[in-house]
Amino acid sequence: MTRSLLSLGVLALASMALALALGSVTVSPGDLWQVIQGEGSTLHRTLLLDLRLPRTLAAFGTGGLLAVAGALMQVLLRNPLADPYVLGLSGGAAVGALLAMLMGMGTLIISGSAFAGAMLATVLVFGLAHGTGSWTPSRLLLTGVVVAAGWGAMITLMLAITPSYKLPGMLYWLMGDVSYARSPWPAVVVLAVAVVLIMPLARNLNVLARGPMQAAALGVSVRPLEWTIYVLASLLTATAVTTAGSIGFVGLIVPHMLRLILGNDQRIILPASALAGGTLLVLADTLARTMIAPEQLPVGVITALLGVPTFLYLLHRSR
């Protein structure tokens, strides 16, 4: 366990160092080390500390949030191919953000609207799935799919009535773009706090993954634990979407691959997902910045290009 997490931690640091070094202006390892020590030229310090470091931290925090949310959703729905966006959270966030963009609001209002939209989607899905009785994973999943379809229709309507000069920013946000991150710290702080809060629950999550009846027989309070997972996964996804827009496949691919490699112990999977998800999105964002430089691609395009073949391979392997 310790060796795996240590290896992922080293890989995460290496990916962030690579992200800091590469770009329109390449920074040598020596210059990078000087800036880390508080030395170096003013140009390099401004480039690394004011421009690249916040974006790198935002990418790492967002990727970690999505991966941990995916791991939680896969336990909650007892489906190894569940995704943090499966319950329509990204759709609600997108509607909130696009409404703010359509009204010409600033970045802070757009972020707040995205978070409010994601929380509204959470309450809506949970309320509809619960109904007058109790909710089940299948009922929650089906409700989320239907609500997500409704959000998709609203997004299409807003894009159709939006003036053409506002469309590029909206489309980039919908595809996921770390450059829109106003500050990396909310994502990083929420990720760190979430991992600390979730780890004491990891043993119960291992039991819950075997089924609610077996978990209840072993003394686990199933319903409060499921509510906790749902709320935490929703908050993590909402924070990620608010930070960088809708970025797909990270929450689906990372936890599933880690389970194939490390097993199904949540005490390992949850922190490993935070490290691996952050590393993946940092590398994807670096590729998005440098592939057709000086132009930049939305990072969601890169994760989709990487995620689709990976998902198909995992699906074929699990057959």
UniProtKB/TrEMBL annotation:
Q: How does it sit in the membrane?
A: Multi-pass membrane protein
Give the record's keywords alphabetically: Cell membrane, Membrane, Signal, Transmembrane, Transmembrane helix, Transport
Q: Which residues form the signal peptide?
A: 1-19
- Where in or outside the cell? Cell membrane
* Cell membrane is among the record's keywords: yes
- Show the GO MF annotations: transmembrane transporter activity
| GO cellular component terms listed in the entry, alphabetical order | plasma membrane
TM annotation in the entry? 57-77, 84-102, 108-128, 140-165, 185-206, 227-254, 266-284, 296-315
Gene3D superfamilies, sorted: ABC transporter involved in vitamin B12 uptake, BtuC
The superkingdom of the source organism is Bacteria
SUPFAM superfamilies given in the database record: ABC transporter involved in vitamin B12 uptake, BtuC
Q: What is its main location?
A: membrane
Which Pfam families has this protein been placed in?
FecCD
PANTHER family referenced in this protein's UniProt entry, alphabetically: ABC TRANSPORTER PERMEASE PROTEIN MJ0876-RELATED, FERRIC ENTEROBACTIN TRANSPORT SYSTEM PERMEASE PROTEIN
Its family remark reads: Belongs to the binding-protein-dependent transport system permease family. FecCD subfamily.
- What's the protein called, per UniProt? ABC transporter permease
